[in-house]
Structures are given as C-alpha cells and as structure tokens.
Amino acid sequence: MDYEPEPCDSCGNHAVIARRVGAEVVRECEVCDNLEGPPDLIELLELQREADGLGVSIDSYPLAHFIEDLPGVRIIGDSGGDRKQGTMPFVAFELSDRRTWQLENIGQALRLMRGDLKCEWSIEFTFDFQMAFELHPRHDGEVKHTADQVQAARDDLVTIWRRLQTYRGLSWWKRE
Questions:
Q1: In percent, how much of the chain has pLDDT > 90?
Q2: 66 vs 57: CA distance, rounded Å
Q3: 30-36: long-range contacts (C-beta < 8 A, 24 or more apart)?
Q4: For 72-131, what is each residue's pLDDT tens digit?
Q5: Parallel, antiparallel, or unpaired: how do β-strands 121-127 and 24-29 relate?
Q6: What is the CA radius of gyration of the chain?
Q7: Which of 29, 117, 130, 162 yields a CA-CA distance of 20 to 30 A from 16?
Q8: CA angle 113, 118, 123 (to 5 degrees)
Q9: Pairing of strands 131-137, 90-95
C-alpha cells in the first residue's frame, strides 16, 4: 500500500514536508508556504519569516516586534547577535511618550522570569542623540562571547517574547 501524505489545509496540495523545530513537528506546504503545527510555534515561525523578508534578525525580531507594539514605545534598534564574532543580542527602544510604565512592565516581567532564563538580562539607560533603553544580557566585562553564550541569549529572546505575551494579560501589567 502506497503512503500518500496529508494534503495542505490551505491549498490542498500534497507537497507538504514535515520538519522538526525543537521538540515539535511542523508541516510546511512547498507550494503555498502554509505552516501547520502548534499555534505558538507557528506564530514564531511566521514572525521569523517576516523578519527574513525585511532583512532583519530573525532572532530578535519577534521580541522587538512585541515591544514596538506596546503603547508609548518605539524600537530604535535590535540584533540577534553574531555567533562568529561573539556579539550578544539586544533590543533598543525609546519611550516615545516619555512615561515609564512600559519600562516598569518589562522590568517586572524580567524579574519574574529570571529563574527561567539562561542569561542574566538587564535594561540599561543609554543616551546618544536621544534618551533610550537597551535590553541585553549582562556581559560582566567580556567583549567577545562564545557561540554557545550567544545561542543561549538567542534562546532567551524567544522565552522573553513568549512570557511577555502572557504577562501582558495579567492584572499587574500597567495599561494606559
């Protein structure tokens, strides 16, 4: 008996491949690019596709996109880091309405998830041509990091993004 793969839910084509993403399996249609799998993983993969199309970091984009959507916050830069050069990822933002309530929300969230992250993260005040903040792993004076340290920080970016989505709906999250 010949095995015929399940058709794509979107276009009905049978050119669907299964691939492992972490511990999960995602089905991807080779014709229409439809993704099928766990909703939270599909959301991450779609944001990474969007980042790739924009030519920005697929590692930092989901978190940067979330932070940019917060009222009163504007992203001014982000990076997924570079494993070869040993540079760590970051997300830089400004408070466009000059109120600190979103900064407090992000800080409180980091405090709550501290035990679940591989790196120790901080929010640092910066000033070049504008007052801004940078969310990044603490570096303890190291200039260059190992590829494993950079990857651990990249993994944390996804964890922070997922948790912020959850925390945003909780009663302690300050709203306008």
A1: 55
A2: 14
A3: 32/8, 34/8, 34/9, 34/10, 36/8, 36/9
A4: 999 999 999 999 999 999 999 999 888 899 999 999 999 999 999 999 999 999 887 778
A5: unpaired
A6: 19
A7: 162
A8: 60
A9: antiparallel
In order of 25, 63, 74, 112, 162, the CA distances from 69 in angstroms are 29, 10, 8, 21, 14
Burial of 135 (0-12, 13-18, 19+ CB in 10 A): buried
Instruction: Give the Cβ contact number of residue 171 at 10 Å.
Output: 4
* Domain 61-167 of CATH type 2.60.120: no
- For tokens 């933002």, what's the residue? 93
Residue pair 52/45 in contact (Cβ under 8 Å)? The answer is no
CA distance 174 to 163: 16
pLDDT, tens digit, 9 for 90 and up, residues 150-165: 999 999 999 999 999 9
51-61: average pLDDT: 84
Give pLDDT, residue 143. Answer: 72
16 has which bridge partners? 29
Closest CA to 27 of 14, 40, 47: 14
Sheet holding 90-95, edge to edge: 73-79, 90-95, 131-137, 121-127
pLDDT exceeds 80 at position 2: no
Verdict on whether the full-model pTM lies above 0.90:
no
Residue with tokens 């190992």: 146
